[in-house]
Amino acid sequence: MFTYLLPLHSWIRWFVLAALLVAIVRGYYAWRHKKEYTKTDNALRHWTATILHIQLILGLWLYSISPIVRYFIQNFQEGVRMRDIRFFGMEHSLMMLIAVVVVTIGSAKAKRKSTSAEKFKTMTIWYSIGLLIILSSVPWEFSPLTSRPSIRYF
Q1: Closest to 62 (Cα-Cα) out of 102, 3, 2, 106
Q2: Which of 51, 48, 143 minimizes the C-alpha distance to 88?
Q3: What CA–CA distance (Å, rounded) separates 33 from 21?
Q4: Is residue 119 within 8 Å of 39, Cβ to Cβ?
Q5: In terms of Cα–Cα distance, which of 140, 69, 134, 60 is closest to 98?
Q6: What is the pTM (predicted TM-score) of this model?
Q7: Which residues, at least 6 apart from 131, have a Cβ–Cβ distance to it below 8 Å?
Q8: Domains of the chain: which residue ranges?
Q9: Could you point out which of 47, 120, 150, 151 has its C-alpha 20 to 30 Å from the C-alpha of 33?
């Protein structure tokens, strides 16, 4: 299962990033140009958060079966001193969970705002914060924290 779930999680990351970027750019543009909040904007807000939640579920599933995480939990004293092990056992999962919470709060707050400008502003700010957290915690190929391929194949 791990050999299929890891590439799936890797591929869906690109959908998460694309959805967040589109939502942020659309939100910022509409906020600055005083556009009306439409059903399409609401769907974009909703589906961006939904894609992120799907990725979270896959990530939690992956966390529960990962040999790296298993090693980290079973050998915590040693694992916490090993960069790659600590990153996947603790840092990546915690930061991504925080990012999902931030985006979810932003989505809920934007949904409840009364004016279009408030909806776009709220969505743009909270989604941007979530994106920054995600970007800081993805194991990019060039990351000084730990690196993994940008695309994993099945």
Answers
A1: 2
A2: 143
A3: 18
A4: no
A5: 134
A6: 0.92
A7: 17, 20, 21, 24, 99
A8: 2-137
A9: 47
